[in-house]
Design goal:
Length: 1189
């Protein structure tokens, strides 16, 4: 407790290197992590406490206590305790198993080995034993054990390269560099052991991109920032070794601070069930208790003397109070514990169906889908918002060079013998690379004309490829096999340099002053004169080089809208042609860059370079002066052409996004990548289109700016829509939960919202989030970029809290864990970034495209099945239980039961349990393929149409009607009836057997009517349950069992006596017909006059069985043009300065390192037009009927 109080009060952290005794007085956490919930000692009390927090378990425990009180017990206690113990035990075993795997995962992480400097020597130490202030040695490709201050590394100037995929989802390398005073320590163990610097820094927090602190050492102070820190979860890359000092450990690390808390998740059906059922139960008990008090007061006192000989007076109010609890016990069959057992069994069955689904099995990695929880399956059928990560979830983060335009000619298109363009995805012969022996054989480029132009020596083509080989920030090295490996700062640069390499212009190496490339087999070294680096405002980068002939050239590549403004007027015709090509590329979803160059005069360059040096040394408006000089020299460019690169989406992403959109599921992308990145992916996935009415971009740097931008966006949207007079815009006003006087206006029109991380931080403030949510929920697509893991969770929480909508979060990295835990349902993709997301998730699979099947098939089926199960279960239990209610008016409200006590015990456990389980597990209203083909079928789940308050009251009314028929038809028939032998049959036991038999037959016929998909199991369970009832009935009413247990089986001989009478069977038949026929008639008229989409598709399925129509192939669609820059892909400013400074250049050949070169895959086929497919097919069988949900 003291430790937790100390933690909450920590405002700054003081850490001394190599001094555990000094640091221990601050009670800092060690490096052990805990994601498990229980220990051996705490499991039983904590687990029982958690289980009895559930309303159902607490209710049945309370019921058990009531049954132990003789004055009010109307049923024996064993009817409750046996199933309660069974449920609690099963749940405890499941929880213990889950926690065992969490312990196992924790132990695996905590027992990882790390080299720690202890007593002046490096020792292998477990991660959990690492302390704040320790100095750790990391080696290449090792995970970082804790948040470290980088002290020194194997690279020049204390640089090291890290991969932050588990933090922000980005797989490109990032650079960290040590202070110059500590980088001199190198790998000298004796000097490192004497290092006693003191770091004073910020307290533990979740801000991944910010760190402030000061290092005090040798009498001087040195400022620390985020560039000096390596965070836990990162991986050391391309660096032989480095040393770091532990600043934050274990739960205090930024990774763990962003992990979020695990929350107990419960479905909306559970919540609704608890509210309705227990409220109804209390109402019935109260009515009967009041009736008992009135009866005792008016009737009971007439013969009270005979019943209570020792009592002069009995209080009618107290009698009613006792009767209330007695009826609560009897009427508990409205919500028996078997309901909760059955629900869990059904959910378990649905989970196994997900696990066994071969269509969700990823054969490349032998990864099946996995339902990691069994409590949320039906909620998969009610999703309204999907929050998705980008990198590794929507994309493979693999860039592929697809096409280019050089001097007005497109290369990369494949034409047939008649000159018509054909589909590139078809099997074609790839290009041979005779000029490049180092060409990558996996590189796929189908246009042989480009190779012909290279071999013929086309100067424009050569200059184009030369620019790709020179203008970049790529680093090269050779592995042990002598293969050239490129270390890329952004994947798009890797794609362009690799393409040049495969086409004969091979980037070999660089120094701070030179770049060496191999041009068609000849090594050429260029002198690097200047590097004009990329940033978000310039959206271009340039290099100025001197070739061996002494010519000075400026090579530039960047966004076409930027470069086209800087072209020489003589490029007008080529500009028009290239612009058309760029539009064509963008229309195919490719990322485009414009390519240009300029010949520079030697004298002009020297003058310009002198001004650049002066600008670099000034302190006044340095950045503005440098930017102005860059603008001056990057003009009068000569256009060479353009490149088209594909960011490889995961297979089926476009189809999945389109299908989910048709199902009215809104997809929000929450990514740590740049704004341009997210926008490009949005266009590639068809989440953003050029047909949208508008795309709002929120990028304010202050709360005022953000508030103003949100206000303008709303005004723009409403103003534009309200000006329409053709009825295309509809405003629906709904009450918002917890928001003060908020009116949501739903706009029919396609809009998108783009907001970045620093703007989102202001937008999530209490006075602005109202506007943000209102605007975002009116948009078809929302993209949040440069967001931290915690901000992802905050966005999910915002929608959960104020929209009352079911949310799903999907991601593949540790940076997605908070989001996954916050959403109603979390889905982890077992991808390239470890298993953190999978371990925190409720469901997992290997590819984003499986989300479509998870929601539209398994989710929808689970929701439909669970709703049908609940509706039928409540119907049969209302019919069963309310007979006691009606009987109460004829037995003085004495809490006497109608049925034999054994029938009450076995009704839900044996007689009616298996048929409803079979329907809840196996039923299908439409096939899985039709569920995928018609996403509109998903909408009833979102609107909660199949089980809500109105449906509950319909079930209740149905049950009330059936209970009336079950009680009053036999009651009326028995009123003046004699058996065939002339004896009177209207005794209590005969009435009970007749009512019970009618009930079993009625509910069995009803479930047969409710079943849409018949299997052998359904037949065996339904008809077998009726047979089981009669066999048990005759056994329990036999003489033999009465002779053994005379007190327990008092209905001796009654079944044989009653069920041999024809009049009894006529009563049973009349009761069955009266109960079932109105339902049959109503359903027939409803399906014929007001069919739902599900009804229509089911009829269509039946027609298909007789004559299956041939499916015509749908034409391929092509999006309209939307040009985008390849620089969207995570390119960071500063690499140019790093290269020209030489800080990242190794003095000697390094040992071979693993590279980041990506395997390039061919593009997938374009999406079929799902919208048209759905509309055409529905109309084909609906014709003049209106499709209604």
């Amino acid at each position: 407790m003291f430790c937790s109080r100390k933690k909450s009060l920590e405002v700054e952290r003081i850490v001394k290197a190599n001094d555990r005794e000094y640091n221990e007085k601050f009670l800092y956490k060690d490096n052990r992590i805990h994601t498990s919930k229980y220990s051996i000692l705490t499991f039983l009390p904590i687990n029982l406490f958690e289980q009895f927090q559930r309303v159902a378990n607490a209710y049945f425990l309370f019921l058990l206590i009531l049954q132990l009180i003789p004055e009010i017990s109307s049923l024996t206690w064993f009817t409750t305790i046996v199933p309660l113990v069974l449920v609690v035990t099963m749940t405890a075993v499941k929880d213990a198993t889950d926690d065992y795997f969490r312990h196992k995962s924790d132990n695996q992480v905590n027992n990882r080995q790390s080299e720690v400097l202890i007593d002046s020597k490096l020792q292998n130490e477990k991660w959990m034993n690492v302390k704040v202030g320790d100095i750790i040695k990391l080696e290449n490709n090792q995970f970082v054990a804790a948040d470290l201050l980088l002290l020194s590394s194997s690279e020049p100037h204390g640089l090291c390269y890290i991969e932050t995929a588990e933090l922000d989802g980005e797989t490109n390398l990032k650079v960290r560099h040590a202070l110059s005073v500590t980088s001199e320590l190198g790998a000298d163990i004796s000097r490192l052991a004497k290092f006693d610097g003191i770091v004073v820094c910020e307290a533990p927090n979740n801000k991944l991109d910010k760190f402030t602190g000061v290092l005090s050492w040798n009498g001087s102070k040195h400022s620390l920032n985020n560039e000096k820190i390596i965070l836990r979860g990162c991986v050391l890359r391309n660096t032989s070794w480095c040393f770091g000092m532990v600043i934050f450990a274990g739960p205090d690390t930024k990774l763990m601070q962003n992990s979020g808390k695990t929350k107990f998740k419960r479905t909306s059906i559970d919540r609704l069930m608890n509210t309705l059922i227990f409220g109804f139960l209390i109402c019935l008990g109260t009515i009967l208790a009041i009736g008992n008090s009135i009866w005792e007061n008016q009737v009971g006192d007439q013969f009270r003397t005979f019943l209570f000989s020792n009592e002069r007076e009995k209080n009618s109010v107290f009698s009613g109070f006792l009767t209330f609890w007695s009826y609560i016990i009897i009427l508990n069959t409205v919500v028996p514990i078997s309901l909760y057992v059955s629900v869990e069994v059904i959910r378990l069955g649905h989970s196994y169906f997900i696990n066994w689904d071969r269509k969700m099995y990823y054969s490349r990695k032998a990864t099946p889908a996995e339902a990691r929880t069994t409590t949320l399956n039906e909620e998969l059928g009610q999703i309204e918002y999907v929050f998705s990560d980008k990198t590794g979830t929507l994309t493979q983060n693999i860039m592929t060079f697809k096409k280019c335009s050089i001097n007005g000619r497109i290369y990369g298109e494949v034409c047939d013998d008649w000159g018509q363009k054909t589909d590139m995805t078809k099997k074609k012969e790839t290009m041979g690379f005779s000029v490049s022996p180092q060409a990558d054989r996996t590189f796929q480029f189908f246009d042989h004309h480009l190779m012909e132009s290279i071999e013929l020596g086309d100067p424009k083509v050569h200059e184009f490829l030369r620019l790709l080989a020179l203008c970049h920030t790529v680093m090269s090295e050779e592995n042990s096999a002598g293969e050239l490996i490129y270390q890329v700062q952004s994947p798009d640069e890797g794609a362009l340099v690799t393409a040049a390499k495969n086409l004969g212009f091979i980037f070999k190496s660089r120094t701070p002053e030179t770049i060496t490339i191999e041009e068609l087999g000849t090594l050429v070294t260029y002198q690097l004169l200047a590097f004009l680096d990329f940033n978000n405002f310039r959206k271009r980068m340039s290099v100025i080089v001197r070739n061996p002939e002494g010519q000075i050239k400026l090579y530039s590549k960047g966004a076409d809208t930027i470069l086209f403004e800087r072209l020489h007027p003589s490029n007008e015709d080529l500009l028009t042609l290239t612009s058309d090509h760029l539009s064509e590329f963008a229309g195919e979803g490719l990322r485009t860059l414009a390519i240009a160059y300029r010949d520079l005069d030697d004298k002009y360059f020297r003058e310009w370079h002198k001004m650049l040096e002066d600008a670099n040394t000034t302190t006044d408006e340095r950045d503005e002066r440098i930017a102005g000089l860059y603008e001056e020299i990057e003009r009068d460019l000569m256009l060479l052409g353009a490149t088209a690169v594909e960011d490889k989406l995961q297979d089926g992403v476009i189809e999945t996004v389109t299908s989910l959109s048709l199902a009215n599921i809104k997809i929000w992308v929450l990514t740590g990548d740049k704004q341009e990145t997210a926008i490009n992916i949005g266009y590639a996935c068809n989440m953003l289109t050029d047909d949208m009415n508008d795309v709002f971009i929120i990028a304010g740097n202050t709360a005022t700016e953000v508030r103003e931008e949100l206000r303008k966006a709303k005004e723009n949207l409403f103003g534009r829509n309200r000006s329409f007079s053709n009825g295309h815009v509809v405003f629906e006003k709904k009450q918002s939960l917890e928001l003060d006087s908020v009116v949501e206006e739903t706009v029919t029109g396609d809009y998108a919202l783009i907001i970045n991380g620093h703007s989102l931080a202001y937008a999530l403030e209490s006075d602005v989030k109202n506007d943000l949510l209102e605007l975002a929920c009116m948009c078809k697509t929302v993209v949040c970029c440069r967001v931290t893991p915690l901000q992802k969770a905050q966005v999910v929480e915002l929608v959960k809290k104020y929209r009352n909508a079911v949310t799903l979060a999907i991601g593949d990295g540790a940076n997605d864990v908070s989001m996954i835990k916050s959403a109603h349902i979390g889905v982890g993709i077992s991808g390239q970034e470890g298993l953190q997301a999978v371990l925190a998730s409720d469901y997992s699979f290997a590819q984003f495209r499986y989300l479509q099947r998870l929601l539209l098939v398994h989710g929808r089926w689970s929701y439909v099945r669970m709703c049908k199960f609940l509706c039928y279960f409540f119907y049969k239990n209302f019919a069963f239980t309310l007979v006691h209610f009606w009987f109460g008016f004829f037995c003085g409200f004495s809490a006497q039961t109608v049925y034999d006590q054994w029938f009450i015990t076995l009704f839900n456990i044996v007689y009616t349990s298996l048929p409803v389980l079979a329907m809840g597990i196996f039923d299908q209203d439409v096939s899985d393929q039709n569920s995928m083909d018609y996403p509109q079928l998903y909408k009833p789940g979102q609107l909660n149409l199949l089980f809500n308050k109105s449906e509950f009251f319909i079930c209740m009314a149905h049950g009330v009607y059936t209970s009336l028929a079950l009680f009053f038809i036999p009651y009326g028939a028995f009123h003046n009836m004699a058996g065939e032998d002339g004896r009177h049959t209207a005794d209590y036991q005969s009435f009970a057997v007749t009512t019970a038999t009618s009930l079993v037959i009625v509910v069995s016929v009803q479930i047969a009517l409710d079943t849409s998909y018949w299997t052998v199991i359904n037949h065996v369970f339904i008809w077998g349950s009726i047979a089981t009832y009669f066999s048990i009935l005759f056994t329990m009413h036999s003489n033999d069992i009465f002779g053994i247990f005379p007190n327990q089986f008092p209905f001796v001989g009654n079944a044989r006596h009653s069920l041999t009478q024809k009049c009894i069977w006529l009563v049973i038949l009349l009761t069955t017909v009266a109960s079932v026929m109105p339902v049959v008639a109503f359903r027939f008229l409803k399906v014929d006059l007001f069919p739902t989409l599900s009804d229509q598709i089911r009829q269509w399925q039946k027609a298909q069985k007789k004559a299956r129509p041939l499916r015509t192939r749908k034409p391929q669609t092509r999006r309209s043009s939307s040009r985008r820059s390849g620089y969207a892909f995570a390119h960071q400013e500063g690499y140019g300065e790093l290269i020209t400074s030489g800080k990242n250049m190794r003095a000697k050949n390094p040992p071979p390192m693993s590279g980041l070169e990506k395997t390039l895959y061919n593009s997938t086929s374009w999406i079929e037009n799902l919208c048209k497919k759905t509309t055409d097919t529905v109309s084909s069988f609906s014709q003049d009927k209106t499709v209604k949900l």
